[in-house]
Amino acid sequence: MVDPSLNLPEPPPELAALSQRLCTRIVNEIEQHGPIGLDHYMRMALYEPGLGYYSNGLLKFGADGDFVTAPEQGRLFAESLAGIVMVVANRLNTGFDVLELGPGSGALARDLLMTLNPLPERYLMLETSATLRQVQQETLAALPAPVAQRVEWIDQPPASGFSGVIVGNEVIDALPVCSFEVQADGLMERAVALDASRFGWQLRPPSDRLASAYQKLSTDLDEPLPNGYCSEICVDLPDWFGSVTQSLDQGLVLMIDYGYPRREYYHPDRAAGTLVAHYRHRAHFDPFVWPGLSDLSAFVDFTALADAGLAQGFELAGFTTQAGLLLGSDILQSIETIANDRERLALAGELKRLMLPGEMGEKFKVMALTRGLELNSSAFQFSDQRGRL
Ligand SMILES: C[S@@+](CC[C@H](N)C(=O)[O-])C[C@H]1O[C@@H](n2cnc3c(N)ncnc32)[C@H](O)[C@@H]1O
After folding, report:
1. pLDDT grade, residue 2 (50/70/90)?
2. Which of 59, 112, 351, 370 is most solvent-facing, going by the fewest CB within 10 Å?
3. 136 and 197 in contact (C-beta within 8 Å)?
4. 256 in ligand 1 pocket by Cβ < 6 Å?
5. Does the structure show a pLDDT above 70 at 162?
6. Which atom of ligand 1 lies closest to the CA of 256?
7. Hey, which of 56, 58, 128, 236 would you mutate to test ligand 1's pocket, going by the most ligand atoms within 8 Å of its Cβ?
8. Residue nearest to atom 11 of ligand 1 (CA)
9. What's the whole-number mean pLDDT along residues 140-146?
10. Distance 3 CA to ligand 1 centre (A)
11. How far, in Å, is the centroid of ligand 1 from the Cα of 362?
């Protein structure tokens, strides 16, 4: 039963049936193994072949989907990132490659490739979802042939060394997370169990990986988290980061996502965590509503991301808000020079959505991690927030 107070539109019967098929698989998993971690549940709800949110072929992005990401707003986001990519390209003596993680509809790839000059030798797309790959291929079909020839889809991070830029927008928030609750006698994991007629939470002792990730984070906090405090940890983040960046010999990793530095993420006031579901442009906090039809994500602990980078020999070259990044780029000046009023106004509206604090400007952060290269980019100098980490 979906809580009517959430006020969510009913899915049509065929989509409700698809969600039901996914629920049956998750129920089987729980009946076989007992309650499963939230990370296990998210993996199935998002990536179960043919049924999971990112694997079922339904529209996700844009006005008719469930949410709108920055590259879907228009070309300005890609243009501001292109400025940073060009700083890296100019530092490297040889050609450069771009690896995009989780390219979604392919909008960022399309607009970056239309802006970058010179073009990267290769534009690699690492996408876990077969159906999204198809969407990306359709989006990029509009590119001129010499540009499109640079694009390659890959199943695994590149095995041999490369130099250039790895970029991921809203990818880390889609990685499965574990959920925990602090109790008087220690940490408990919130696992997903079968309730009377739906899924529900059940507490159990934490896995070793969750316990050690929690131990590490609690040493960084100013005060212990209070009893009853619930939140999430992406225990997979360090290994995932290591695997996607292992072959980067020289270059930059650029991650954009909603999130906080650790002390703000695990602030005593944020006692219900950051897990959020998106369904038809409505955000809510019940991860068990229509699995497969709702996106599930958690905010990013950017201190954990910086730590993962430092552990792999990266340097923290920049941390700022999305608004700071745009203000530090030359996008504002370039809009002012556009003579066509209608175009200029449309771009100013797009810029507002990307930059305003109530929209994406403050909630979204941008982190730059470099290996074997110094990054002097004005985009990170306008509002350097590394001290918050
Ligand atoms: C929220 S969407 C963001 C899409 C796109 N980057 C954008 O900004 O519009 C998350 C994307 O990450 C992909 N993804 C999730 N986990 C991934 C992983 N481990 N490796 C690569 N892509 C992944 C999803 O399939 C999806 O394309």
Report:
1. low
2. 59
3. no
4. no
5. yes
6. 8
7. 128
8. 102
9. 94
10. 29
11. 21
Kindly report the pTM of this predicted structure: 0.95
**Rounded mean pLDDT of the chain?**
92
Assess whether the C-beta atom of 101 lies below 6 angstroms from ligand 1.
yes
Of 50-64, 89-103, 125-139, which range is least confident? 50-64
Question: Which distant-in-sequence residues (6+ apart) come within 8 Å of 273 by Cβ?
Answer: 179, 230, 231, 232, 298
* pLDDT of the residue at 4: 67
| Residue 332 pLDDT | 82
Q: Tell me how far the alpha carbon of residue 259 lies from the centroid of ligand 1, in angstroms.
A: 16
CA atoms of 358 and 43, how far apart (whole Å): 30
Ligand 1 in reach of 100 Cβ (< 6 A): no
Check if the beta carbon of residue 100 is closer than 8 Å to that of residue 167: yes
Say whether pLDDT at 93 is over 80.
no
Of 267, 269, 287, nearest to 277 by C-alpha is: 287
Q: Which of 26-35, 337-346, 362-371 has the lowest mean pLDDT?
A: 337-346
Tell me the domain boundaries of the chain.
70-174+238-263+299-388
Q: Contact, 313 vs 242, CB < 8 A?
A: no
Ligand 1 neighbourhood includes 37 CB (under 6 angstroms): no
| Ligand 1 and 258: CB distance under 6 A | no
Q: Whole-angstrom Cα distance, residue 58 to residue 325? A: 32
Q: Which atom of ligand 1 is nearest to the CA of 297?
A: 1
CATH architecture, range 70-174+238-263+299-388: 3-Layer(aba) Sandwich (3.40)
